[in-house]
Known about the structure:
With 478 residues, chain A is mainly alpha-helical.
Amino acid sequence: MPEVTERAVNVQEHLQQVVTLLSKQRMVEDIVHRQTMPRHDLVETLVHKQHMVELERKLNEMHPADVAYILEALPLAQRLQVWDLVRAERDGEILLEVSEPVRETLIAHMDRDELVAAAEQLDSDEIADIAPDLPREVITDVFNLLPVEEREQLRAALSYPKDAVGALMDFGMVTIREDVTLEVVLRYLRRIGELPRHTDTLFVVDRMNALRGVLMLNQLLLNEPEAEVSALVQRDVVKFEPDDDAHQAAEAFERYNLISAPVVDASGKLIGRVTVESVLDYIRATTDTELLKMGGLREEEDIFAPVWNSLRNRWPWLAINMVTAFVASRVIGAFEGSIEKIVALAALMPIVAGIGGNSGNQTITMIVRALALGQITAANATKLLGKELLIAFINGLLWGTILGVVAFLLYNNFALGMVMMSAMTLNLLLAALAGVAIPFIMYKLGRDPAVGSSVMITALTDSGGFFIFLGLATLFLL
Amino acid sequence: MPEVTERAVNVQEHLQQVVTLLSKQRMVEDIVHRQTMPRHDLVETLVHKQHMVELERKLNEMHPADVAYILEALPLAQRLQVWDLVRAERDGEILLEVSEPVRETLIAHMDRDELVAAAEQLDSDEIADIAPDLPREVITDVFNLLPVEEREQLRAALSYPKDAVGALMDFGMVTIREDVTLEVVLRYLRRIGELPRHTDTLFVVDRMNALRGVLMLNQLLLNEPEAEVSALVQRDVVKFEPDDDAHQAAEAFERYNLISAPVVDASGKLIGRVTVESVLDYIRATTDTELLKMGGLREEEDIFAPVWNSLRNRWPWLAINMVTAFVASRVIGAFEGSIEKIVALAALMPIVAGIGGNSGNQTITMIVRALALGQITAANATKLLGKELLIAFINGLLWGTILGVVAFLLYNNFALGMVMMSAMTLNLLLAALAGVAIPFIMYKLGRDPAVGSSVMITALTDSGGFFIFLGLATLFLL
């Protein structure tokens, strides 16, 4: 458990203080560099030292999460300067708090011994969390240094995929037997001297370590010491297995307002627990990833990452869009003859494509959300599709008519207006159909519908929109 | 506190069972309707009754959050059928759990007395949560029925905007004095008989109710009963004021892994507390809203909402996009003469606009995230802009060259290829500039950069892309 440190409601104040100290120190360095008069040297070195000492003191008073926050917000050179000032025995807990790309920059700056020392400060489940970023040989060293029990825990923790409950699990459990009195439990707790963070329940197990239920910590306080555990144990417990879906576990935590929950193996033996802390981290990480992927980034990006890293993070998406844009361009290319005759088509076609894309994305947002919440069943899927098609039809007629009138007024061509309206309606219907079908199919294929769906529908409504509009124009206007 | 009910790791199983029972019952109803032979009547009514009784029993065994989940996933008619089966004394806790649009459909189906009875089951902070959906006269009735203290709490809770800590606050606090022993505290707790949910700390106050610190519940268990509270009280406490930003409070909960934290007024008096439960709800609600708004929906939408409601939810966004698409269309219209001469421009222009939009959205996603995390300072903003411009320049040259070569090969026109490459580079630079500037300006203006930024940049890179590409073509190719 981390010691109690200074904590701030507004962590930006911390950041501002650090930046100020760093810039003062940089000014001193600049002076030292520019001036060469020896008599000043001593004073400046002292002033320099003073800033650094103050910064060091500040950093070591801060909560590890706040130090992590500051490291994230600093450009690489200053980040490493601050990192050097952090006391070595706090390295582990801070590495745990920073984001993955920032962790990589810090780890790259540490040698093998430092890394082993940092990892050693952590619990086995925490080591597993940062293990993917550690060099192979560091993990081997750490592994050999761990006591047998923790070594087994680390091995287990490393074996779970990141979307399994096993990856959220820690081993900070207090277990008790049910044939004792609260008095005995209390004496036992006082002997241990401290409880793992977020302990709201004690796990009641039998002699084979099979979970029999939980005892709420409250019960220890609210009942007379003579009461037996067996009379107060809660049997109906939300429990997980390590292979359960982490997403589902997080939802159970939210629905039932859990603080901690036991993890058992297939035979019912207690092997770990999940706390609201790792659930919160998981929720934050997954929604973050989702937002980033929707924005076209491959993964989380350190804002001060070298340009080369940023480029690699952004290329996959640009490449995909290049291909879809090229396809759309070829669809237009196929109708160059028609555009040559009625050049107004070139100006109007992006509207049809654009509104189709927007409408399709609205449908997809709805459906992806309902799928994520598990609200879509085979029974109501057709009903939903029907509703989306009806909405698309109404929107198509409505906005299509407006645009049709505008096109008619602009180009004084009634047939062009009619083509505009029909194309809008058809493209919105296509968008609604695809907006329901794409996420549904991806879900059935076991893919995450949140990520690729939006690209696909935009590609479809672009190419489809151009094809429908230019096709109708070629049929009816030429 | 809700009674202990059946809880499921996978709530979809619950939903499936309800749907099965509902469909069985519907089958029976169909038979009753179609057949008119009196001798069957009795049996069918019995079978019908049997299904409904089983469904009712199932529902009343479920956790309120699970019933809420099922109500969300059912079309309106079935939703109301299920709602009628829920025991009246559970209405309040379930109304609290369902989403706002679904809550509206349930409330519309209840009369004044039912609503008052439902609200009365809730704590004052919970009544405040559902108050916006309740008819005015119901709130008045409830208000008059509440004891004075709770009436004041409700009045206070209703007065906070939804993004203030006050809106997350509840009043389930246990307060103690510091000049007593743990023994006294324990006796006091046993007399109360139960603790509010998520009580991990007791609040230590003086006789003026000013907060002096907190006593971790753990300390009660781990220390001898003779110890004095004053020796164990933790003075350095993360505490909030009701007007503090809820977003910042949620971040503090995450950073410091809090379960509950006190809320004090300006003079330091304890007035309430925030728990991880309301923080989780808040995080879920805000990320949900953000995702919905990014998808172009005005607010959360009941998937079974009447078509009219859905239309109203989607029109604002479509209208905005209509305007931006129209502007882009007029930009193209201004160059109709050029397109008439080189029709290839019509086919190539959407690529320039599209890739610009994608690249701009990548930048915006990064910047919005960094702004939300408070990582952008005046000092590093220019650094970030420089980096984004460099990335845009490299990407422009790279992808621009590829497209330029493709354009050259397709149309056998070297100058067209050069225009393509230059237009790509310029549009990506525009995208990078706007991708940094737009969210930054919105942030400075106190608006949420997450929502409108994406629309704005797409509008800009569309119109800008068309203008740059067609403009360069007109200058150099004609």
